[in-house]
Amino acid sequence: MAESRGILTFRALSALLTYPSAELCAGAPEIAEAIAAERLVPAASAAALQPLLDDLGSRDLFELQERYVELFDRTRRLSLHLFEHVHGESRDRGQAMVDLAALYESGGLVLAANELPDYLPLFLEYLSTRPLEEALNLLSETVHILGALEERLAARNSPYAAVLTAIRGMAGVSLTASGDDDLLDPVSGDLAALDAEWEETAVTFGPGSGAMDGCSTERLQTRLRAAHRDARSNPL
To answer: N or C end of the chain: which has fewer CB within 10 A?
Structure first.
């Protein structure tokens, strides 16, 4: 069944984006096997995951954790929280969080008290519970964010860039098609300085946005589509 084939791939990619733990490192071979067996990730993208998998299997755990924190927790530009790149600190982010949490709950995924619903690994975990077509359609609405993160990680020569490539590849959308080629050349400026200067622009939805009452996949997709402008316009 296509629906069941998609579950482990989404969960495997979700795991690769979580804070490294001894359990994650020990499970790296099984993650690789699941991705290879299901063949939902393009072959070249799956092969590109190997350096990260090798790191998880061989590098010191403290070094892996330190690298993860340095990448994802110390700059908003590499945040794994989707709505950070859509709404920044605007009021719309709070409502988008409520909508996404309600969508999870309607699908049977109950959040822990300390979990933010827009955390990318959690979003992938939710997709793993949905029929494959539905999951891929919803995933396709985030490719502009994924593409921006992919380029920013690639600019740092990070093996995590391959995870974003694999996720985006599942949606069948190329980096160019997603519009993220509009991002500035990553080698043209100092990355640390750009990190310090970068700020998100709040997204507004216009006078008609109030008609989207209640929670639905369509409403969530509308909020994610609104990020296209921001993901492209924020320079590397």
So the answer is: N
pLDDT the model gives residue 75: 82
CB-CB contact of 31 with 8 (8 Å): no
Nearest CA to 194 among 152, 235, 135, 143?
Answer: 235
3-state SS class at 119:
strand
Under 8 Å between Cβ of 215 and 99: yes
Cβ–Cβ contacts within 10 Å for residue 228, how many?
18
CA angle 52, 39, 64 (to 5 degrees): 15
How many CB atoms are closer than 10 A to CB 142?
26
Under 8 Å between Cβ of 138 and 220: yes
User: Which parts of the chain have pLDDT scores under 70?
Assistant: 1-6, 87-94, 113, 173-236
Cα 134 to Cα 46: distance, rounded to the nearest angstrom: 22
Query: How would DSSP label each residue in 41-97?
Result: S-HHHHHHTHHHHHHHHHS-HHHHHHHHHHHHTS-GGG-SBGGGTTTTTSHHHHHHH
Instruction: Encode pLDDT of 17-46 as tens digits.
Output: 999 999 999 999 999 999 999 999 999 999
